[in-house]
Amino acid sequence: MTKRFPPTSPEDVTAFAVSSADIELTWSDRSTNVDGFIIEKKDSNGNTYSQIVVGQDVENYNDTGLSEETIYYYRVRAYSNNNNEGNSSYFNETNVTIHAAPSDLSAAAVSDSRINLSWSDNSSYESGYEIWRRVGEDVNHSRVATVDADMTSYMDTHLSSSTSYYYLVRAISTNSGSDFSNEANINTLAASASSGDGGGGGGGGVVCFIATSGCMAFMTREIMVTLLILGFGIIGLAGWQKRFRNPHL
Predict the structure, then answer these.
(1) Taking Cα atoms as reference points, which of 111, 128, 174, 110 lies closest to residue 119?
(2) Quick check: 68 and 99 in contact, CB under 8 A?
């Protein structure tokens, strides 16, 4: 009788949480004499391994209906229906955490270029939080920042004045991302006259060489003192020049 060998173990087994209730499991089939794959799963609640069987040429499995704040462990092996071949060994165990999504996201505009965000941390195993943002009529959010675990606030800066910003936040860790929080949106404040283009006043400030009543309203005390010193200096210089020209004065 010809000796048969068991299937080769699958490789590259990875698990990724695609939501707060779903994990996508993938692997690579390295065998030609395989009839299917056996997935074994357990969780951090102390349960023993349960088996899930999938068919030949399958290299992924979507595990649904999972619980938040739970770690799930997976291992995969190939099997053969030929009794002389048996099953492969298991590939190394992999695990992934299902995170609870943050909640109560709120946004506050504190200037024409800064918005402060805050949210509630509902996860125990996250490595950080991602902040996602869209602007105005844009449809898609893009990730703009990542903060450390247990953080519940973020300051978004260098924004445009009088502009609508929309935010989402989610908990993350290796191979895992929670559902997004509620969306929060707010407009930045209008640009202030002193920092904007400023109409009729020469842009970002006022420069006066003649102390008219209209210009004096914009002068600071330091500018007024400087002008007075310069004025007295000019008067004194003129008097000295006059005496130099007419020593009998």
Answers:
(1) 128
(2) yes
Give CA separation, 135 vs 138, 143, 158, 167, 186, in Å.
6, 12, 13, 9, 10
- In single-letter form, the type of residue at position 98 comes to I
Sign, CA dihedral 75-79-84-85, equals negative
- What average pLDDT does range 180-209 have in this prediction? 65
Q: Taking a C-beta distance cutoff of 8 angstroms, is the pair 79, 88 a contact?
A: yes
Q: Which two tokens stand for residue 133?
A: 């943002």
For the segment(s) 103-187, the CATH number from 3.30.420.40, 3.30.450.20, 2.60.40.10, 3.40.50.150 is: 2.60.40.10
- Confirm whether pTM is higher than 0.90: no
Query: Quick one: 115 exposed, middle or buried, by C-beta within 10 A (0-12, 13-18, 19+)?
Result: buried
Give the type of residue at 94. T
